[in-house]
Amino acid sequence: MALFLAGVIMFGGSVVQGALGFALGLIAVPLLVEAGFSLSQSVALTTLAIGIQVLFGAWKLRAHIPWPEVRLAASIRYLTVPIGVLMLLSVENLDTDTVKRLVGLGVLLGVGLRALARSGPARELPIAVSTAVFGLSGVLQGLVAMGGPPLVLWMTTREFAVSQARAFTMTLFLLNAPVQVLLLLFLSQTMTGEALLMALLLTPVIYLGTLIGVRIGDRFSKPLLNRVALIVLAVIATNAIL
Q: What residues have CB less than 8 Å from 185, skipping those under 6 apart?
């Protein structure tokens, strides 16, 4: 039953991720917690699922990776992802309702940041601002596997082509995800190797959901899909909080 529930959640999240290029973590983590998984298990499952999903995409787009930006962001996130993981470990022992509310608040934060992301003129941000954004991304990634929204907001200030933007987020995630998963595996009392195996078993489901999502994304306008996704995420978050 646990594998079935995780499969349904990962499939749905992969469809949305394939269509929009984001939201797997925002969808999967609160629903997995709602389904009875611990926060550590939910974050690890989601992290591995996203890793499986973007691995081949990052390799395909390797020629478009903006390495100077990736090196800076990855270095900062190597320091802050562990902070997020430690915060996760400190809160997951709270009662289930409190954990759900915290995750819901994290989703609402992610939705808010994503809604603020609008294309604008490219500009060179102060290094302190970029450092703060990448740091926040790392903390949110380690805490609730939702490090993408701050990066999306930051990229609105850059002249990235679509291929560069996708390569940036994919490569950054792949560089930092192993640290997060290993920390959870060794430090969390609820994390086991079985949860990692579950993510591997769900690889075909994740792949199928991604393919379907990509086709949906090709058929509908991105602004419409974004609005629908943000509304659904807001409903999920509100349900978790209440």
A: 44, 191, 193, 196
Q: How far is CA 58 from CA 55, 145, 163, in A?
A: 5, 19, 10
Spatial separation of the C-alpha atoms in residues 166 and 204, rounded to whole Å? 22
Instruction: Please state, in angstroms and rounded to a whole number, the distance separating the CA atoms of residues 99 and 203.
Output: 27
Contacts 24+ apart (CB under 8 A), 125-129: 125/154, 125/157
Distance CA 177, CA 211 (A): 23
Sequence-separated (6 or more) residues with CB below 8 Å from residue 242: none
Contact indicator for 41, 195 with CB cutoff of 8 Å:
yes
pTM (2 d.p.): 0.83
Q: Of the candidates 236, 6, 18, which has an alpha carbon nearest to the alpha carbon of residue 107?
A: 236
Reading the chain (242 residues) residue by residue, the pLDDT tens digits are: 788 999 999 998 888 877 766 678 888 888 998 888 988 999 988 888 888 878 877 888 889 899 999 999 999 999 999 999 999 999 887 787 888 888 888 888 877 877 776 655 656 778 898 999 999 999 989 988 888 888 888 887 888 877 888 888 889 989 998 999 999 989 988 887 787 788 888 888 988 988 888 788 778 776 776 777 778 778 888 887 87
